[in-house]
């Protein structure tokens, strides 16, 4: 497969990028306070910057596309404590449709809920709180907050799949759960019960000894267990698994990369784990039948 170079034209470091649902466009977040939308289209066509979005006052850490069912919507978060919702109109013009200023310090991570749950964005902030913004039918937003989620600062957030274990898609009740990571080296699982978010479990272990940089809940797709990956400043990636409700989460060290782990993300089928660690080191991993993880690919920068 031929690789393709994409010119972004950012004036400073790029912290995050996200490809849209159709694989046609890339959104990027940078220390230059902007978000850029870039066409990535066909391998032969030159990529071009379609829009530069300005609305942050400081580095932008993350970008996330909403499901196209809700229109062309992008969320961004940054050092300024702002979470901005951007929308593209029919003519291809982007505008800032909402800015949440609920957080008192840097918002480090954002994640859209599975589309079945609704248009719903979870945010993790250095102020220790997690906020969940849900769009109402009238276009307004409801806000729920988990106070003191990680008192020294929340760094990472990810949603559980909307489908319960062992059930077919579209049947049964929807699952409302989140996993978060913090500067406290702890991974926590939250569940939405009786109208509010409650701590379901703090996955405390001696495996992470430094800030949890990212967490990612694997898609279910007929799996018999729930799986979460966490990556830390300490270089370690831990795989957490849990069987049916009532079982305990169990953590297993997948690998020590010997350099900070920035990102962990699952493929859509949940069987490949992508890990970004150290300087430009991106690798893909798969779990063998013996439970051992093996590297299947190295992405060359």
TrEMBL record:
Q: Where are the WD repeats?
A: 53-87, 205-240
What gene makes this protein? LOC101763445
Protein keywords: Protein transport, Repeat, Transport, WD repeat
Name the job this protein performs. Required for protein transport from the endoplasmic reticulum to the Golgi apparatus.
Supply the name of the protein.
Anaphase-promoting complex subunit 4 WD40 domain-containing protein
Query: Which Gene3D superfamilies does this entry report, sorted A to Z?
Result: YVTN repeat-like/Quinoprotein amine dehydrogenase
- The organism is Setaria italica
Q: Looking at the record's lineage, which domain of life comes first? A: Eukaryota
Output the InterPro entries linked to this UniProt entry.
Answer: Sec13/Seh1_fam, WD40/YVTN_repeat-like_dom_sf, WD40_repeat_dom_sf, WD40_rpt
Q: How is this protein annotated for GO cellular component? A: COPII vesicle coat; nuclear pore outer ring
One example of the protein's molecular function in GO is: structural molecule activity
Sequence similarity: Belongs to the WD repeat SEC13 family.
In terms of PROSITE patterns, this protein maps to: WD_REPEATS_2 (PS50082)
